[in-house]
Design goal:
The complex is a heterodimer. Chain A has 8 helices and 7 strands; from the N terminus they run H-H-H-H-H-H-E-H-E-E-E-E-E-E-H. By secondary structure, chain A is α+β, with helices and mostly antiparallel strands. Chain A folds into 2 domains: about 5-50, no CATH class; about 105-240, 2-Layer Sandwich (Phosphorylase Kinase, domain 1), CATH 3.30.200. Classes of the chains: A alpha+beta, B mainly alpha.
C-alpha cells in the first residue's frame, strides 16, 4: 500500500470499519511511514476535539408536546368507581366482540390512533388544509384524481359549521380525504374512509378529543374535534341528514 | 385456528393501542435525544428542530406497526433526516452538489512534533461548533451521525441512502474539510 491508499483508509481505521486484511496492511504501513502516522495523529486530535461538543438537549416543552400528541398516554390508573368498572366492562365487551367477530380488515384501534395523530398534527400551524375553500364545488373536485373516493361535501354555515377546505392524509397506509370544518374556535376533521364501518354513530373520547364514527353510503366517516360532544353530535346529524350524495350540482 | 398476527411484533396484554404506545416508548422514544440533536445540527435552528422532531415522532408512531427492525435509532433518524431535508429543500438550503476534491490531507506540512494535532486539541468548543455548522449539509450530516451519534457506516448508509463505500469517502472528505475550516479560522483570528 502506498501513502495515498493508506490516507484514504485512515478514517475507516479510526472508525473500526476496515476489513481485517486492510486493517493489517494500514497498520503495518503506519509503522514505517512518519507522514501517515502524523496524519493519523491529526485525525485523532480532530475527533477528540469534535467529541467535546455537548449534544443539544431536548426541552421539557418538546418532550411534553410529543407525549401529549401521541395517542393513549399511559397514565396512572384512575380509580373512580363507576367509570373504572364501566371501562373494564366496556373493554371486556369489546374483547368478547373482537373474539367472536374477528378482525375484519385492519385493527380498529390502530386506525383510531392514526386518525387521532392526524387530527393533532393538523392542528399544528400550516397543516390544516391543502385546499382552502368554503365552496363545496371547489373542495369536492379537488379530491378527484387524488383519491378513489369522492367524499360527499356539504357546507353547514347557517348552522355554525363552516366548510373551510380539505386535505389528504395517510391513514392506515391509504390516501384518505379529510374535510375540514370550523365551528366557533374549534376545528372538526371529517375523515372519509373507503371501508365498511359501524352503521349507527359510535362516540368515543380520547385525550380530550371527541370522536364519532358512522357508516353511510358505503363509506365510513370519522369526525374528530375538541368541540363539545353535543356540538359534534349536531354536526354529525346535519351531515347524515344532508340529502343526496352531495355531488349532483 | 387462524393465526392473524404473522409478522406483527408480539403485543403484550390485550389492548393493542396501549401496547403500541408502550412499545413505541421503549423502542423509539428513548432515541428522542438523538433525534433532536441530529435535527438541530441539520437545521441550525432550535424552533425548526423542535417542529420537525415533533412531526417526525408522530410519523414514526404511525409507521411503527410496520417497523420490523431491532434497533429503533437508525429507523427514527431516517425519518428525522427526511423531515429535515424536506424542510431545508423547501427553503433552498440543502445542496447535494459538493466539490468532492481528492488528495487533500489533514495537515498542511508533515512536521515531526504534530503541531496540527496540538492546535486541534486546543480549539474552543464554540469554534469547533461554528466550523461544523459551516460545513456543507452532506458533510455535516455524516460528521454528526458518526461523531455524535456514533453510528456505524452501515447505519449511516441506511439513513442517508448512500452505499457504505460512499459513507467512508464522504466522511473522509468531511473531516479534511472540517480540519481546513478550523485552520482557516485560525488564520483569520491570529494576524
Amino acid at each position: 500500500m502506498n501513502c495515498d491508499q493508506v490516507k484514504r483508509l485512515l478514517g475507516a481505521l479510526e472508525d473500526k470499519e476496515l476489513s481485517a486484511s486492510d486493517d493489517m496492511m494500514v497498520r503495518s504501513h503506519l509503522t514505517t511511514c512518519a507522514k501517515c502516522q502524523s496524519e493519523l495523529t491529526a485525525l485523532q486530535a480532530l475527533r477528540e476535539t469534535v467529541a467535546k461538543q455537548a449534544p443539544y438537549g431536548v426541552s421539557d416543552g418538546l418532550r411534553n408536546r410529543i407525549s401529549r400528541a401521541l395517542p393513549m398516554e399511559p397514565e396512572p390508573r384512575k380509580r373512580s368507581f363507576g367509570w373504572g368498572y364501566g371501562f373494564i366492562l366496556g373493554l371486556a365487551c369489546s374483547a368478547v366482540a373482537f373474539f367472536f367477530f374477528g378482525r375484519q380488515g385492519q385493527d380498529p384501534s390502530v386506525l383510531e390512533g392514526d386518525i387521532l395523530a392526524s387530527h393533532i398534527r393538523s392542528l399544528m400551524p400550516g397543516h390544516m388544509t391543502d385546499v382552502v375553500s368554503s365552496d363545496r364545488h371547489t373542495v369536492k373536485p379537488w379530491f378527484s384524481g387524488k383519491v378513489d373516493i369522492s367524499p360527499p361535501t356539504w357546507d353547514f354555515k347557517e348552522n355554525g359549521f363552516k366548510l373551510t377546505g380539505g386535505r389528504l392524509d395517510y391513514i392506515d397506509g391509504r390516501a384518505t380525504p379529510v374535510l375540514v370544518y370550523r365551528v366557533r374556535q374549534h376545528w372538526i376533521n371529517l375523515f372519509v374512509l373507503a371501508r365498511q364501518g359501524k352503521t349507527p354513530p359510535v362516540s368515543l373520547d380520547r385525550q380530550g378529543f371527541h370522536i364519532v364514527e358512522w357508516a353511510q353510503s358505503g363509506l365510513e366517516f370519522v369526525a374528530v374535534s375538541d368541540v363539545d360532544a353535543a356540538a359534534l353530535k349536531q354536526f354529525v346529524d346535519l351531515y347524515r341528514n344532508a340529502s343526496g350524495p352531495g355531488d349532483n350540482h | 385456528m387462524k393465526i392473524e398476527s404473522v409478522g406483527i411484533p408480539p403485543r403484550l396484554g390485550f389492548h393493542p393501542m396501549k401496547d403500541q404506545r408502550r412499545q413505541f416508548e421503549w423502542v423509539i422514544m428513548r432515541h428522542l435525544e438523538a433525534a433532536y440533536n441530529v435535527a438541530r445540527w441539520y437545521l441550525r435552528n432550535e424552533h425548526d428542530a423542535e417542529d420537525i422532531v415533533q412531526d417526525s415522532m408522530l410519523k414514526a408512531y404511525q409507521a411503527f406497526p410496520k417497523f420490523r427492525g431491532v434497533d429503533g435509532k437508525p429507523w427514527l433518524l431516517k425519518i428525522v433526516r427526511n423531515g429535515c431535508i424536506r424542510h431545508l429543500e423547501r427553503q433552498g438550503r440543502f445542496k447535494t452538489d459538493v466539490l468532492e476534491e481528492e488528495g487533500m490531507s489533514m495537515e498542511s506540512v508533515g512536521v515531526q512534533d504534530d503541531p496540527e494535532a496540538q492546535f486541534l486539541r486546543a480549539l474552543s468548543n464554540e469554534r469547533v461548533r461554528l466550523a461544523i455548522e459551516s460545513l456543507p449539509s452532506v458533510y455535516r450530516e455524516v460528521i454528526v451521525l458518526r461523531e455524535f451519534e456514533e453510528l456505524s457506516y452501515a447505519q449511516i448508509s441506511e439513513i442517508v441512502g448512500i452505499p457504505c463505500g460512499t459513507v467512508m469517502s464522504r466522511l473522509s472528505r468531511a473531516r479534511v474539510q472540517l480540519a481546513s475550516a478550523l485552520r482557516a479560522e485560525q488564520c483569520e483570528e491570529t494576524p
